[in-house]
């Protein structure tokens, strides 16, 4: 909450800046996975022709590079790595260097990706360069996101919500950019170039927003605070930051406040052998309290990343070639997923069910494993092992609706429940543990995607 002597945020410039910075942190991941058809076209040796059209699927035996699997895995492993290394890294490198350096590196790497649209090269070198870019971009994105989260610890909680709202729109923004590129009517190469220039503009705007913060009186007031002055706001900020995931879609600030109020009213009773509030919380004791919720979070992301986008991006329309079949995957896979995922997270603004004491949550999480065979049995062309049991487009759309909304709701639910299962002084440790298990789930799902694709 803002202090009484704080200056006003004139024209909401600081809020707008953090919203754009939030958008910029997750643009790289979303723009890469949404453009999977473009990369697959390049990897089958397509030249500068119509086969490079964004949104056209190239699947089957010729997809020897397993691009969609590798791009998912190499996007999530850096998140897991930097989650483990963040304390060491953040103490050794100044905050400004981490943020500006990461933004500039991401901008340069995305500029390279855009430039490669105009460069003809064989599939092997193109794959190697692209995978290296994916790995480095997501490494810098992990550093950037963690550093900005640290800055938000000194700001009023409203700015955490704005930052997370920007992250939440990144996936929808990428899907809409894909659709606009496809519908622009220009040649395929120009369409792809325009698509990849879009995140470059977004990152450049993020850089300008960050550089403007020291010149805004409101931002200077909070960002110049000493760490000890900022610690009073850490609990509120961390509770809100925990509402983001790999798509970064936030929970509502009203629900976060309600959760914190309920935590204070319903404080778990400490066990006789449990460390009291004085002293450093035990990681093992905290883990014992939240292990089931953490496991649920791991399983939710394991299921999601095992098929999205590795399998779902391969599904094509069963209708005859035309405009609908051309736009089918960008709309029904990427745009639909991001919208329904956001809606699923919004549901926790109105109710939290089941609660932290219910055994129904693990059951609901385990039921999501049914989506793996359901998507694998949809209309994926040139499969070699499994039959196609759900050829109609309506099946895939229905599965995606349930898949996305359940992902959003269960992720947000587990993140809301974890702080309620521990004592107030243990919430910071619980937050760190849940962040680690979030990254672990993403990496496990990305790894499993190789197996599921091989079974098709």
Automatic annotation (TrEMBL):
Topology term for the membrane: Multi-pass membrane protein
Compartment(s): Apical cell membrane; Basolateral cell membrane
Keyword match Transport: yes
GO molecular function, one term: uridine transmembrane transporter activity
Key words, A-Z: Cell membrane, Glycoprotein, Membrane, Phosphoprotein, Transmembrane, Transmembrane helix, Transport
Role description: Bidirectional uniporter involved in the facilitative transport of nucleosides and nucleobases, and contributes to maintaining their cellular homeostasis. Functions as a Na(+)-independent, passive transporter. Involved in the transport of nucleosides such as inosine, adenosine, uridine, thymidine, cytidine and guanosine. Also able to transport purine nucleobases (hypoxanthine, adenine, guanine) and pyrimidine nucleobases (thymine, uracil). Involved in nucleoside transport at basolateral membrane of kidney cells, allowing liver absorption of nucleoside metabolites.
Family designation: Belongs to the SLC29A/ENT transporter (TC 2.A.57) family.
PANTHER family membership: EQUILIBRATIVE NUCLEOSIDE TRANSPORTER, EQUILIBRATIVE NUCLEOSIDE TRANSPORTER 2
Protein name, entry field: Equilibrative nucleoside transporter 2
Organism name: Macaca nemestrina (Pig-tailed macaque)
Gene behind the chain: SLC29A2
């Amino acid at each position: 909450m803002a202090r009484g002597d704080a200056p006003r945020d004139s024209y909401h410039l600081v809020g707008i800046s953090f919203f754009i910075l939030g958008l910029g942190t997750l643009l790289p991941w979303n723009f890469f996975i949404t453009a999977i058809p473009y990369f697959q076209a390049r990897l089958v040796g397509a030249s500068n022709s119509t086969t490079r059209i964004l949104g056209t699927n190239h699947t089957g035996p010729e997809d020897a590079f397993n691009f969609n699997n590798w791009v998912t895995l190499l996007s999530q492993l850096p998140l897991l790595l930097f989650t483990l290394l963040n304390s060491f890294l953040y103490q050794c490198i100044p905050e400004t260097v981490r943020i500006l350096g990461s933004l500039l590196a991401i901008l340069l790497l995305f500029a390279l990706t855009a430039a490669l649209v105009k460069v003809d090269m064989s599939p092997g070198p193109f794959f190697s360069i692209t995978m290296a870019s994916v790995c480095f971009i997501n490494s810098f994105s992990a550093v950037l996101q963690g550093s900005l989260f640290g800055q938000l610890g000194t700001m009023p909680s409203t700015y955490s919500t704005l930052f997370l709202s920007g992250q939440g729109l990144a996936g929808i923004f990428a899907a809409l950019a894909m659709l606009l590129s496809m519908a622009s009517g220009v040649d395929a190469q120009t369409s792809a170039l325009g698509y990849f220039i879009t995140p470059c503009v977004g990152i450049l705007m993020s850089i300008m927003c960050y550089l403007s913060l020291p010149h805004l009186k409101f931002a200077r007031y909070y960002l110049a605070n000493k760490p000890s002055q900022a610690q009073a706001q850490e609990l509120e900020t961390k509770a809100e930051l925990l509402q983001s995931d790999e798509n970064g879609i936030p929970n509502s600030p009203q629900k976060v406040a309600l959760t914190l109020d309920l935590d204070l009213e319903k404080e778990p009773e400490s066990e006789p052998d449990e460390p009291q509030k004085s002293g450093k919380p035990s990681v093992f004791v905290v883990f014992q309290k939240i292990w089931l919720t953490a496991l649920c979070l791991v399983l939710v992301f394991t299921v999601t990343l095992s098929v999205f986008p590795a399998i779902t991006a391969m599904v094509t329309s069963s209708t005859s070639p035309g405009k609908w079949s051309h736009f089918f995957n960008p709309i029904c896979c990427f745009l639909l997923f991001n919208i329904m995922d956001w809606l699923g997270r919004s549901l926790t603004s109105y109710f939290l069910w089941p609660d932290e004491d219910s055994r129904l949550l693990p059951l609901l999480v385990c039921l999501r494993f049914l989506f793996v065979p359901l998507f694998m049995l949809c209309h994926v062309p040139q499969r070699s092992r499994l039959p196609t049991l759900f050829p109609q487009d309506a099946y895939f759309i229905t599965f995606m609706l349930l898949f996305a909304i359940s992902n959003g709701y269960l992720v947000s639910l587990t993140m809301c429940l974890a702080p309620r299962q521990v004592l107030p002084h243990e919430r910071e440790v619980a937050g760190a543990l849940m962040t680690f298990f979030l990254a672990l789930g993403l990496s496990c799902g990305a790894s499993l995607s190789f197996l599921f694709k091989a079974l098709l």
